[in-house]
Protein backbone atom coordinates (compact mmCIF):
# COMPACT_ATOMS: atom_id res chain seq x y z
CA UNK A 1 0.00 0.00 0.00
CA UNK A 2 1.25 3.46 -0.89
CA UNK A 3 1.51 6.28 1.63
CA UNK A 4 -1.49 7.93 -0.01
CA UNK A 5 -3.44 4.67 0.32
CA UNK A 6 -2.58 4.43 4.01
CA UNK A 7 -3.76 8.01 4.57
CA UNK A 8 -6.96 7.25 2.64
CA UNK A 9 -7.63 4.23 4.85
CA UNK A 10 -7.03 6.23 8.03
CA UNK A 11 -9.16 9.06 6.68
CA UNK A 12 -11.99 6.64 5.90
CA UNK A 13 -11.81 5.19 9.42
CA UNK A 14 -11.77 8.70 10.89
CA UNK A 15 -14.76 9.82 8.82
CA UNK A 16 -16.66 6.66 9.77
CA UNK A 17 -15.98 7.19 13.50
CA UNK A 18 -16.86 10.88 13.29
CA UNK A 19 -20.05 10.04 11.41
CA UNK A 20 -21.00 7.61 14.18
CA UNK A 21 -20.37 10.33 16.78
CA UNK A 22 -22.37 12.96 14.89
CA UNK A 23 -25.26 10.54 14.33
CA UNK A 24 -25.27 9.46 17.98
CA UNK A 25 -25.23 13.07 19.20
CA UNK A 26 -28.10 13.99 16.90
CA UNK A 27 -30.23 11.08 18.04
CA UNK A 28 -29.58 11.83 21.71
CA UNK A 29 -30.39 15.51 21.20
CA UNK A 30 -33.59 14.68 19.32
CA UNK A 31 -34.73 12.34 22.10
CA UNK A 32 -33.74 14.80 24.84
CA UNK A 33 -33.93 13.50 28.41
CA UNK A 34 -36.43 10.79 27.43
CA UNK A 35 -33.63 8.24 26.99
CA UNK A 36 -32.52 8.58 30.59
CA UNK A 37 -36.10 8.60 31.87
CA UNK A 38 -36.89 5.40 29.96
CA UNK A 39 -33.66 3.75 31.05
CA UNK A 40 -34.17 4.55 34.72
CA UNK A 41 -37.83 3.42 34.84
CA UNK A 42 -38.27 0.57 32.37
CA UNK A 43 -36.31 -2.01 34.36
CA UNK A 44 -39.06 -3.91 36.15
CA UNK A 45 -37.82 -7.28 34.89
CA UNK A 46 -34.83 -8.65 33.03
CA UNK A 47 -36.60 -9.27 29.72
CA UNK A 48 -37.95 -5.72 29.62
CA UNK A 49 -34.48 -4.44 30.54
CA UNK A 50 -32.99 -6.33 27.58
CA UNK A 51 -35.55 -4.82 25.20
CA UNK A 52 -34.96 -1.32 26.58
CA UNK A 53 -31.18 -1.72 26.31
CA UNK A 54 -31.45 -2.96 22.72
CA UNK A 55 -33.91 -0.25 21.69
CA UNK A 56 -31.91 2.58 23.19
CA UNK A 57 -28.68 1.36 21.62
CA UNK A 58 -30.38 1.23 18.22
CA UNK A 59 -31.43 4.85 18.78
CA UNK A 60 -28.05 6.20 19.86
CA UNK A 61 -26.01 3.80 17.67
CA UNK A 62 -23.58 3.19 20.52
CA UNK A 63 -23.59 0.43 23.11
CA UNK A 64 -20.90 2.40 24.96
CA UNK A 65 -23.29 5.37 25.33
CA UNK A 66 -26.05 3.14 26.73
CA UNK A 67 -23.65 1.36 29.07
CA UNK A 68 -22.22 4.72 30.19
CA UNK A 69 -25.75 5.74 31.23
CA UNK A 70 -26.15 2.42 33.07
CA UNK A 71 -22.88 3.02 34.93
CA UNK A 72 -24.03 6.55 35.76
CA UNK A 73 -27.37 5.37 37.11
CA UNK A 74 -25.70 2.60 39.13
CA UNK A 75 -23.20 5.15 40.43
CA UNK A 76 -26.11 7.34 41.56
CA UNK A 77 -27.93 4.37 43.11
CA UNK A 78 -30.90 4.72 40.72
CA UNK A 79 -30.66 1.12 39.48
CA UNK A 80 -29.17 -2.05 40.93
CA UNK A 81 -27.07 -4.73 39.23
CA UNK A 82 -30.09 -6.94 38.55
CA UNK A 83 -31.61 -4.11 36.52
CA UNK A 84 -28.29 -3.16 34.94
CA UNK A 85 -27.41 -6.63 33.62
CA UNK A 86 -30.47 -6.79 31.36
CA UNK A 87 -29.79 -3.37 29.85
CA UNK A 88 -26.14 -4.28 29.20
CA UNK A 89 -27.17 -7.49 27.45
CA UNK A 90 -29.72 -5.61 25.36
CA UNK A 91 -27.08 -3.03 24.39
CA UNK A 92 -24.97 -5.85 22.96
CA UNK A 93 -27.88 -6.76 20.67
CA UNK A 94 -28.69 -3.17 19.71
CA UNK A 95 -25.12 -2.39 18.69
CA UNK A 96 -25.28 -5.01 15.89
CA UNK A 97 -27.63 -2.77 13.89
CA UNK A 98 -24.65 -0.74 12.63
CA UNK A 99 -23.17 -3.70 10.74
CA UNK A 100 -26.64 -4.51 9.36
CA UNK A 101 -26.99 -0.96 8.02
CA UNK A 102 -23.53 -0.89 6.50
CA UNK A 103 -24.14 -4.24 4.78
CA UNK A 104 -26.35 -2.25 2.40
CA UNK A 105 -24.31 -0.69 -0.39
CA UNK A 106 -25.49 2.91 0.04
CA UNK A 107 -22.18 4.61 -0.68
CA UNK A 108 -23.53 6.19 -3.87
CA UNK A 109 -26.14 8.06 -1.79
CA UNK A 110 -23.63 9.32 0.81
CA UNK A 111 -22.97 12.75 -0.82
CA UNK A 112 -26.72 13.35 -1.17
CA UNK A 113 -27.29 12.44 2.50
CA UNK A 114 -24.48 14.79 3.51
CA UNK A 115 -26.06 17.59 1.48
CA UNK A 116 -29.55 17.06 2.96
CA UNK A 117 -28.22 16.80 6.49
CA UNK A 118 -26.07 19.92 6.14
CA UNK A 119 -29.01 21.96 4.78
CA UNK A 120 -31.26 20.90 7.68
CA UNK A 121 -28.54 21.42 10.29
CA UNK A 122 -27.24 24.78 9.06
CA UNK A 123 -30.31 26.56 7.74
CA UNK A 124 -33.35 25.26 9.66
CA UNK A 125 -34.03 27.02 12.97
CA UNK A 126 -36.34 24.43 14.53
CA UNK A 127 -34.23 22.33 16.91
CA UNK A 128 -35.85 18.97 16.12
CA UNK A 129 -35.19 19.43 12.38
CA UNK A 130 -31.61 20.47 13.13
CA UNK A 131 -31.08 17.31 15.18
CA UNK A 132 -32.59 15.14 12.44
CA UNK A 133 -30.28 16.88 9.97
CA UNK A 134 -27.39 16.00 12.26
CA UNK A 135 -28.44 12.33 12.18
CA UNK A 136 -28.72 12.31 8.38
CA UNK A 137 -25.36 14.05 8.06
CA UNK A 138 -23.85 11.41 10.35
CA UNK A 139 -25.27 8.65 8.15
CA UNK A 140 -23.74 10.31 5.11
CA UNK A 141 -20.33 10.52 6.78
CA UNK A 142 -20.61 6.91 7.88
CA UNK A 143 -21.27 5.56 4.38
CA UNK A 144 -18.74 7.88 2.75
CA UNK A 145 -16.14 6.69 5.25
CA UNK A 146 -16.93 3.06 4.37
CA UNK A 147 -16.58 3.85 0.64
CA UNK A 148 -13.18 5.45 1.22
CA UNK A 149 -12.06 2.48 3.34
CA UNK A 150 -13.14 -0.03 0.69
CA UNK A 151 -11.30 1.89 -2.01
CA UNK A 152 -8.16 2.12 0.12
CA UNK A 153 -8.32 -1.55 1.11
CA UNK A 154 -8.73 -2.91 -2.44
CA UNK A 155 -4.98 -2.70 -3.38
CA UNK A 156 -4.08 -4.62 -0.20
CA UNK A 157 -5.38 -7.79 -1.82
CA UNK A 158 -2.32 -7.65 -4.05
CA UNK A 159 0.12 -7.05 -1.17
CA UNK A 160 1.85 -10.34 -0.13
CA UNK A 161 2.91 -8.81 3.20
CA UNK A 162 -0.61 -7.76 4.23
CA UNK A 163 -2.11 -11.03 3.03
CA UNK A 164 0.46 -12.86 5.18
CA UNK A 165 -0.57 -10.81 8.25
CA UNK A 166 -4.23 -11.64 7.71
CA UNK A 167 -3.39 -15.28 7.04
CA UNK A 168 -1.98 -15.41 10.57
CA UNK A 169 -5.50 -14.59 11.82
CA UNK A 170 -6.76 -17.96 10.58
CA UNK A 171 -5.93 -19.27 14.04
CA UNK A 172 -9.09 -18.68 16.11
CA UNK A 173 -7.22 -17.64 19.27
CA UNK A 174 -5.08 -15.17 17.32
CA UNK A 175 -8.17 -13.76 15.62
CA UNK A 176 -10.01 -13.30 18.94
CA UNK A 177 -7.00 -11.58 20.55
CA UNK A 178 -6.61 -9.31 17.50
CA UNK A 179 -10.34 -8.48 17.63
CA UNK A 180 -10.07 -7.58 21.33
CA UNK A 181 -6.98 -5.39 20.82
CA UNK A 182 -8.31 -3.66 17.69
CA UNK A 183 -11.66 -2.88 19.33
CA UNK A 184 -9.99 -1.66 22.52
CA UNK A 185 -7.95 0.72 20.36
CA UNK A 186 -11.01 2.06 18.52
CA UNK A 187 -13.20 1.86 21.68
CA UNK A 188 -16.15 0.76 19.54
CA UNK A 189 -17.22 -2.78 18.66
CA UNK A 190 -19.53 -1.40 15.95
CA UNK A 191 -16.63 0.36 14.24
CA UNK A 192 -14.23 -2.60 14.38
CA UNK A 193 -16.92 -5.00 13.13
CA UNK A 194 -17.66 -2.74 10.16
CA UNK A 195 -13.93 -2.58 9.34
CA UNK A 196 -13.66 -6.40 9.52
CA UNK A 197 -16.75 -6.52 7.32
CA UNK A 198 -15.03 -4.27 4.75
CA UNK A 199 -11.92 -6.51 4.78
CA UNK A 200 -14.12 -9.56 4.16
CA UNK A 201 -15.96 -7.86 1.29
CA UNK A 202 -12.61 -7.09 -0.37
CA UNK A 203 -11.64 -10.76 -0.07
CA UNK A 204 -8.91 -10.13 2.51
CA UNK A 205 -10.64 -12.14 5.23
CA UNK A 206 -12.43 -15.46 5.09
CA UNK A 207 -15.85 -15.69 6.67
CA UNK A 208 -14.62 -18.01 9.44
CA UNK A 209 -11.79 -15.63 10.39
CA UNK A 210 -14.26 -12.73 10.47
CA UNK A 211 -16.44 -14.75 12.85
CA UNK A 212 -13.67 -14.99 15.46
CA UNK A 213 -12.75 -11.33 14.98
CA UNK A 214 -16.38 -10.41 15.73
CA UNK A 215 -16.29 -12.53 18.90
CA UNK A 216 -13.13 -10.74 20.01
CA UNK A 217 -14.63 -7.34 19.18
CA UNK A 218 -17.44 -7.90 21.70
CA UNK A 219 -14.88 -8.44 24.49
CA UNK A 220 -12.78 -5.44 23.42
CA UNK A 221 -15.85 -3.22 23.69
CA UNK A 222 -15.24 -3.22 27.45
CA UNK A 223 -12.49 -0.59 27.12
CA UNK A 224 -14.76 2.53 27.35
CA UNK A 225 -16.44 1.04 30.44
CA UNK A 226 -13.05 0.20 31.93
CA UNK A 227 -11.96 3.82 31.56
CA UNK A 228 -15.27 5.05 32.99
CA UNK A 229 -14.86 2.79 36.04
CA UNK A 230 -11.97 4.90 37.32
CA UNK A 231 -14.24 7.88 38.04
CA UNK A 232 -17.23 6.19 39.71
CA UNK A 233 -18.00 4.62 43.07
CA UNK A 234 -18.11 0.89 43.76
CA UNK A 235 -21.67 0.53 42.44
CA UNK A 236 -20.56 2.11 39.16
CA UNK A 237 -17.48 -0.13 39.01
CA UNK A 238 -19.63 -3.22 39.46
CA UNK A 239 -21.89 -2.15 36.59
CA UNK A 240 -18.83 -1.51 34.39
CA UNK A 241 -17.27 -4.91 35.09
CA UNK A 242 -20.62 -6.63 34.65
CA UNK A 243 -20.26 -5.94 30.93
CA UNK A 244 -16.80 -7.56 30.85
CA UNK A 245 -17.99 -10.68 32.69
CA UNK A 246 -20.96 -11.04 30.31
CA UNK A 247 -18.84 -10.62 27.18
CA UNK A 248 -16.20 -13.09 28.38
CA UNK A 249 -19.00 -15.59 29.04
CA UNK A 250 -20.43 -14.77 25.60
CA UNK A 251 -17.06 -15.36 23.87
CA UNK A 252 -16.49 -18.72 25.60
CA UNK A 253 -20.02 -19.98 24.90
CA UNK A 254 -19.96 -18.94 21.24
CA UNK A 255 -16.55 -20.51 20.58
CA UNK A 256 -17.78 -23.77 22.10
CA UNK A 257 -21.06 -23.66 20.17
CA UNK A 258 -19.59 -23.04 16.71
CA UNK A 259 -16.98 -25.76 17.23
CA UNK A 260 -19.43 -28.33 18.59
CA UNK A 261 -22.19 -27.33 16.14
CA UNK A 262 -20.46 -25.97 12.99
CA UNK A 263 -23.82 -26.14 11.21
CA UNK A 264 -24.64 -22.83 12.96
CA UNK A 265 -22.17 -21.00 10.72
CA UNK A 266 -23.42 -22.86 7.66
CA UNK A 267 -26.96 -21.81 8.50
CA UNK A 268 -25.94 -18.15 8.85
CA UNK A 269 -24.05 -18.26 5.52
CA UNK A 270 -27.07 -19.78 3.77
CA UNK A 271 -29.21 -16.84 4.88
CA UNK A 272 -27.25 -14.60 2.47
CA UNK A 273 -25.39 -16.83 0.00
CA UNK A 274 -22.65 -15.02 -1.88
CA UNK A 275 -22.91 -11.84 0.24
CA UNK A 276 -20.11 -12.03 2.83
CA UNK A 277 -20.81 -8.52 4.10
CA UNK A 278 -24.35 -9.49 5.02
CA UNK A 279 -23.09 -12.80 6.44
CA UNK A 280 -20.75 -10.96 8.84
CA UNK A 281 -23.59 -8.61 9.85
CA UNK A 282 -25.97 -11.52 10.45
CA UNK A 283 -23.32 -13.35 12.47
CA UNK A 284 -22.86 -10.28 14.66
CA UNK A 285 -26.61 -10.03 15.33
CA UNK A 286 -27.39 -13.75 15.72
CA UNK A 287 -24.43 -14.30 18.04
CA UNK A 288 -25.59 -11.42 20.25
CA UNK A 289 -29.13 -12.84 20.47
CA UNK A 290 -27.90 -16.39 21.19
CA UNK A 291 -25.57 -15.10 23.91
CA UNK A 292 -28.35 -13.15 25.62
CA UNK A 293 -30.79 -16.09 25.48
CA UNK A 294 -28.20 -18.35 27.12
CA UNK A 295 -26.90 -15.78 29.62
CA UNK A 296 -30.17 -14.25 30.83
CA UNK A 297 -31.29 -17.22 32.98
CA UNK A 298 -27.87 -17.35 34.72
CA UNK A 299 -27.26 -13.59 34.90
CA UNK A 300 -27.34 -13.70 38.72
CA UNK A 301 -24.05 -15.62 38.53
CA UNK A 302 -22.48 -12.65 36.74
CA UNK A 303 -23.64 -10.39 39.55
CA UNK A 304 -22.09 -12.70 42.16
CA UNK A 305 -18.78 -12.73 40.25
CA UNK A 306 -18.73 -8.93 40.10
CA UNK A 307 -19.55 -8.72 43.80
CA UNK A 308 -16.58 -11.04 44.45
CA UNK A 309 -14.35 -8.62 42.54
CA UNK A 310 -15.83 -5.62 44.40
CA UNK A 311 -17.25 -7.01 47.68
CA UNK A 312 -20.14 -5.13 49.27
CA UNK A 313 -18.80 -3.33 52.33
CA UNK A 314 -20.80 -2.91 55.59
CA UNK A 315 -21.46 0.78 54.86
CA UNK A 316 -22.80 -0.19 51.44
CA UNK A 317 -25.23 -2.64 53.05
CA UNK A 318 -26.48 0.25 55.18
CA UNK A 319 -26.80 2.44 52.10
CA UNK A 320 -28.86 -0.24 50.35
CA UNK A 321 -31.14 -0.50 53.39
CA UNK A 322 -31.49 3.29 53.56
CA UNK A 323 -32.68 3.41 49.96
CA UNK A 324 -35.36 0.74 50.32
CA UNK A 325 -38.92 1.51 51.36
CA UNK A 326 -39.48 -0.18 54.71
CA UNK A 327 -43.10 0.68 55.46
CA UNK A 328 -44.69 1.45 52.06
CA UNK A 329 -44.09 -2.08 50.79
CA UNK A 330 -47.66 -3.20 50.01
CA UNK A 331 -49.89 -2.44 47.05
CA UNK A 332 -51.85 0.78 47.28
CA UNK A 333 -55.30 0.87 45.78
CA UNK A 334 -58.32 -1.32 45.37
CA UNK A 335 -58.06 -5.05 44.89
CA UNK A 336 -56.61 -8.19 46.36
CA UNK A 337 -53.49 -7.67 48.45
CA UNK A 338 -53.83 -3.89 48.63
CA UNK A 339 -53.95 -1.93 51.87
CA UNK A 340 -56.72 0.54 52.85
CA UNK A 341 -56.01 4.21 52.22
CA UNK A 342 -55.88 5.05 55.93
CA UNK A 343 -53.25 2.37 56.59
CA UNK A 344 -51.26 3.42 53.53
CA UNK A 345 -51.20 7.04 54.76
CA UNK A 346 -49.92 5.93 58.17
CA UNK A 347 -47.21 3.87 56.47
CA UNK A 348 -46.26 6.89 54.36
CA UNK A 349 -46.00 9.02 57.51
CA UNK A 350 -43.59 6.50 59.07
CA UNK A 351 -41.57 6.31 55.86
CA UNK A 352 -41.27 10.09 55.72
CA UNK A 353 -40.18 10.18 59.35
CA UNK A 354 -37.44 7.68 58.51
CA UNK A 355 -36.41 9.87 55.56
CA UNK A 356 -36.37 12.82 57.97
CA UNK A 357 -34.02 10.96 60.32
CA UNK A 358 -31.63 10.40 57.40
CA UNK A 359 -31.76 14.09 56.48
CA UNK A 360 -31.19 15.14 60.10
CA UNK A 361 -28.23 12.76 60.42
CA UNK A 362 -26.85 14.17 57.20
CA UNK A 363 -27.08 17.72 58.54
CA UNK A 364 -25.35 16.74 61.76
CA UNK A 365 -22.49 14.94 60.01
CA UNK A 366 -22.13 17.71 57.44
CA UNK A 367 -21.64 20.22 60.25
CA UNK A 368 -19.12 17.92 61.93
CA UNK A 369 -17.30 17.77 58.61
CA UNK A 370 -17.39 21.57 58.34
CA UNK A 371 -15.78 22.18 61.73
CA UNK A 372 -13.31 19.27 61.40
CA UNK A 373 -12.98 18.31 57.74
CA UNK A 374 -12.99 14.59 56.99
CA UNK A 375 -12.96 13.46 53.35
CA UNK A 376 -14.59 10.10 54.14
CA UNK A 377 -17.36 11.82 56.07
CA UNK A 378 -17.91 14.21 53.15
CA UNK A 379 -18.34 11.19 50.85
CA UNK A 380 -20.84 9.61 53.24
CA UNK A 381 -22.86 12.86 53.37
CA UNK A 382 -23.08 12.93 49.58
CA UNK A 383 -24.09 9.27 49.38
CA UNK A 384 -26.74 9.79 52.06
CA UNK A 385 -28.04 12.80 50.13
CA UNK A 386 -28.49 10.47 47.13
CA UNK A 387 -30.35 8.05 49.43
CA UNK A 388 -32.69 10.85 50.55
CA UNK A 389 -33.32 11.79 46.90
CA UNK A 390 -34.12 8.17 46.01
CA UNK A 391 -36.52 7.86 48.96
CA UNK A 392 -38.07 11.18 47.97
CA UNK A 393 -38.95 9.83 44.50
CA UNK A 394 -40.13 6.47 45.85
CA UNK A 395 -42.39 7.96 48.54
CA UNK A 396 -43.73 10.61 46.15
CA UNK A 397 -44.66 7.82 43.73
CA UNK A 398 -46.61 6.03 46.46
CA UNK A 399 -48.40 9.23 47.49
CA UNK A 400 -49.34 9.96 43.88
CA UNK A 401 -51.09 6.56 43.79
CA UNK A 402 -53.02 7.58 46.92
CA UNK A 403 -54.02 10.85 45.24
CA UNK A 404 -55.60 8.82 42.45
CA UNK A 405 -57.96 7.07 44.90
CA UNK A 406 -61.34 8.36 46.01
CA UNK A 407 -60.25 9.76 49.38
CA UNK A 408 -62.37 11.57 51.92
CA UNK A 409 -61.52 15.20 52.61
CA UNK A 410 -59.38 14.50 55.68
CA UNK A 411 -57.27 11.82 53.98
CA UNK A 412 -56.85 13.99 50.91
CA UNK A 413 -55.59 16.83 53.12
CA UNK A 414 -53.12 14.54 54.86
CA UNK A 415 -51.76 13.14 51.59
CA UNK A 416 -51.28 16.65 50.22
CA UNK A 417 -49.52 17.80 53.38
CA UNK A 418 -47.30 14.71 53.44
CA UNK A 419 -46.23 15.57 49.90
CA UNK A 420 -45.21 19.06 51.05
CA UNK A 421 -43.35 17.63 54.07
CA UNK A 422 -41.25 15.42 51.79
CA UNK A 423 -40.07 18.52 49.93
CA UNK A 424 -38.96 20.23 53.14
CA UNK A 425 -37.11 17.13 54.34
CA UNK A 426 -35.36 16.67 50.98
CA UNK A 427 -34.21 20.30 51.13
CA UNK A 428 -32.70 19.74 54.57
CA UNK A 429 -30.44 17.13 53.01
CA UNK A 430 -29.65 19.49 50.13
CA UNK A 431 -28.39 22.01 52.69
CA UNK A 432 -26.19 19.27 54.21
CA UNK A 433 -24.51 18.85 50.85
CA UNK A 434 -24.06 22.63 50.63
CA UNK A 435 -22.32 22.63 54.01
CA UNK A 436 -19.84 19.95 52.86
CA UNK A 437 -19.11 22.03 49.77
CA UNK A 438 -18.38 25.05 51.99
CA UNK A 439 -15.91 22.93 53.98
CA UNK A 440 -14.14 21.79 50.81
CA UNK A 441 -14.06 25.33 49.45
CA UNK A 442 -12.42 26.55 52.67
CA UNK A 443 -9.92 23.68 52.60
CA UNK A 444 -8.96 24.24 48.95
CA UNK A 445 -8.51 27.99 49.52
CA UNK A 446 -6.65 27.37 52.80
CA UNK A 447 -9.00 29.85 54.47
CA UNK A 448 -9.46 29.97 58.24
CA UNK A 449 -12.32 31.36 60.33
CA UNK A 450 -11.75 33.25 63.55
CA UNK A 451 -12.51 31.35 66.74
CA UNK A 452 -15.37 33.78 67.49
CA UNK A 453 -16.96 33.02 64.10
CA UNK A 454 -16.68 29.25 64.64
CA UNK A 455 -18.20 29.54 68.11
CA UNK A 456 -21.14 31.59 66.81
CA UNK A 457 -21.79 29.11 64.01
CA UNK A 458 -21.65 26.14 66.41
CA UNK A 459 -24.26 27.72 68.69
CA UNK A 460 -26.58 28.53 65.78
CA UNK A 461 -26.07 25.05 64.29
CA UNK A 462 -26.92 23.37 67.62
CA UNK A 463 -30.16 25.34 67.90
CA UNK A 464 -31.06 24.52 64.28
CA UNK A 465 -30.42 20.79 64.81
CA UNK A 466 -32.55 20.86 67.97
CA UNK A 467 -35.37 22.44 65.95
CA UNK A 468 -35.06 19.81 63.21
CA UNK A 469 -35.09 16.92 65.69
CA UNK A 470 -38.11 18.39 67.49
CA UNK A 471 -39.95 18.96 64.22
CA UNK A 472 -39.63 15.28 63.32
CA UNK A 473 -40.97 14.25 66.74
CA UNK A 474 -43.98 16.56 66.28
CA UNK A 475 -44.48 15.27 62.72
CA UNK A 476 -44.52 11.64 63.89
CA UNK A 477 -46.52 12.00 67.11
CA UNK A 478 -48.67 14.98 66.06
CA UNK A 479 -48.17 16.30 69.61
CA UNK A 480 -48.74 19.99 68.95
CA UNK A 481 -48.16 20.98 72.57
CA UNK A 482 -44.47 21.27 71.55
CA UNK A 483 -45.17 23.88 68.85
CA UNK A 484 -44.39 26.76 71.22
CA UNK A 485 -41.01 25.19 71.91
CA UNK A 486 -40.10 24.89 68.23
CA UNK A 487 -41.44 28.38 67.50
CA UNK A 488 -39.10 29.71 70.20
CA UNK A 489 -36.16 27.85 68.66
CA UNK A 490 -36.99 29.19 65.18
CA UNK A 491 -37.20 32.74 66.54
CA UNK A 492 -33.88 32.26 68.30
CA UNK A 493 -32.24 31.09 65.06
CA UNK A 494 -33.69 34.09 63.19
CA UNK A 495 -32.28 36.42 65.84
CA UNK A 496 -28.93 34.65 65.63
CA UNK A 497 -28.88 35.22 61.88
CA UNK A 498 -29.17 38.99 62.36
CA UNK A 499 -26.65 39.03 65.22
CA UNK A 500 -24.11 36.87 63.39
CA UNK A 501 -24.33 38.92 60.20
CA UNK A 502 -23.77 42.14 62.19
CA UNK A 503 -20.81 40.60 64.03
CA UNK A 504 -19.42 39.38 60.72
CA UNK A 505 -19.64 42.85 59.17
CA UNK A 506 -17.85 44.27 62.18
CA UNK A 507 -14.99 41.76 61.82
CA UNK A 508 -14.71 42.59 58.14
CA UNK A 509 -14.51 46.29 58.95
CA UNK A 510 -11.65 45.58 61.37
CA UNK A 511 -10.00 43.26 58.79
CA UNK A 512 -10.04 40.44 61.34
CA UNK A 513 -11.73 38.02 58.95
CA UNK A 514 -10.35 36.19 55.93
CA UNK A 515 -12.46 37.38 52.93
CA UNK A 516 -12.97 33.81 51.65
CA UNK A 517 -13.98 32.58 55.10
CA UNK A 518 -16.26 35.61 55.38
CA UNK A 519 -18.21 34.61 52.27
CA UNK A 520 -18.59 31.04 53.53
CA UNK A 521 -19.66 32.34 56.96
CA UNK A 522 -22.50 34.38 55.41
CA UNK A 523 -23.64 31.50 53.19
CA UNK A 524 -23.62 29.02 56.07
CA UNK A 525 -25.62 31.35 58.31
CA UNK A 526 -28.24 31.58 55.54
CA UNK A 527 -28.35 27.79 55.17
CA UNK A 528 -28.79 27.27 58.90
CA UNK A 529 -31.65 29.78 59.03
CA UNK A 530 -33.38 28.13 56.08
CA UNK A 531 -33.06 24.71 57.72
CA UNK A 532 -34.85 26.16 60.73
CA UNK A 533 -37.65 27.39 58.46
CA UNK A 534 -37.98 23.91 56.95
CA UNK A 535 -38.18 22.48 60.48
CA UNK A 536 -41.18 24.73 61.22
CA UNK A 537 -42.88 23.59 58.01
CA UNK A 538 -42.33 19.93 58.93
CA UNK A 539 -43.70 20.46 62.46
CA UNK A 540 -46.87 22.07 61.11
CA UNK A 541 -47.19 19.72 58.11
CA UNK A 542 -50.08 17.58 59.39
CA UNK A 543 -51.74 20.13 61.65
CA UNK A 544 -55.27 20.99 60.61
CA UNK A 545 -55.00 24.77 60.17
CA UNK A 546 -57.20 27.49 58.74
CA UNK A 547 -56.67 27.88 54.99
CA UNK A 548 -55.00 31.29 55.31
CA UNK A 549 -52.46 30.05 57.88
CA UNK A 550 -51.66 26.93 55.85
CA UNK A 551 -51.11 28.98 52.70
CA UNK A 552 -48.77 31.34 54.52
CA UNK A 553 -46.56 28.50 55.76
CA UNK A 554 -46.35 26.91 52.31
CA UNK A 555 -45.40 30.21 50.73
CA UNK A 556 -42.63 30.58 53.30
CA UNK A 557 -41.27 27.21 52.17
CA UNK A 558 -41.33 28.28 48.53
CA UNK A 559 -39.63 31.59 49.30
CA UNK A 560 -37.12 29.90 51.56
CA UNK A 561 -35.95 27.65 48.76
Describe the 3D structure.
By secondary structure, the protein is mainly alpha-helical. 80% of the residues lie in helices and 1% in strands. It contains 25 helices and 2 strands. The chain has helices at residues 3-31, 34-41, 46-60, 63-75, 81-94, 97-102, 110-123, 127-153, 160-167, 172-186, 189-201, 207-220, 223-228, 234-260, 263-271, 276-295, 299-309, 314-322, 341-371, 375-403, 409-445, 451-477, 483-509, 515-540, 547-560; strands at 331-332, 338-339. It has a two-stranded parallel ribbon. Helix 4 (63-75) packs antiparallel against helix 5 (81-94) and helix 4 (63-75) packs across helix 14. The longest helix has 37 residues, at 409-445. It is elongated. The model is unreliable at 547-561 (pLDDT under 50).
Layout of helices and strands, plus pairs?
Blueprint (H helix, E strand, L loop, with lengths): L2 H29 L2 H8 L4 H15 L2 H13 L5 H14 L2 H6 L7 H14 L3 H27 L6 H8 L4 H15 L2 H13 L5 H14 L2 H6 L5 H27 L2 H9 L4 H20 L3 H11 L4 H9 L8 E2 L5 E2 L1 H31 L3 H29 L5 H37 L5 H27 L5 H27 L5 H26 L6 H14 L1
Helix pairs in contact: 1-8, 3-5, 4-5, 4-14, 5-14, 5-16, 5-17, 7-8, 8-11, 10-11, 10-12, 11-12, 11-16, 12-14, 12-16, 14-16, 14-17, 15-16, 19-20, 19-21, 19-22, 20-21, 21-24, 22-23, 22-24, 23-24, 24-25
Amino acid sequence: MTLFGAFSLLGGVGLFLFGMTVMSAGLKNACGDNLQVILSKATKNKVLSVLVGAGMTVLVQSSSATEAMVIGFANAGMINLIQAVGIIMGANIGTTITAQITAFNLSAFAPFLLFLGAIAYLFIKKNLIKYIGEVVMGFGMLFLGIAIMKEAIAPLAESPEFVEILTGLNNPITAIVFGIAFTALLQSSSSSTVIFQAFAIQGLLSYHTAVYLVIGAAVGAFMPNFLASFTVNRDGKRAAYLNLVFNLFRAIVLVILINVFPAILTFIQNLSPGDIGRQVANTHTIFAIIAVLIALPVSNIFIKIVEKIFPIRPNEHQKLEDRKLQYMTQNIGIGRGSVPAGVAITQAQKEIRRMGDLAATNLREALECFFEYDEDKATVVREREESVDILNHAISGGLSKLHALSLNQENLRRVSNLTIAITDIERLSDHAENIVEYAEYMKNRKAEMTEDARKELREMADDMLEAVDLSLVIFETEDYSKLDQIEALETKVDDQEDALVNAHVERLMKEECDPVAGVVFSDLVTDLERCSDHAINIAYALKDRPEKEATTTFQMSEYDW
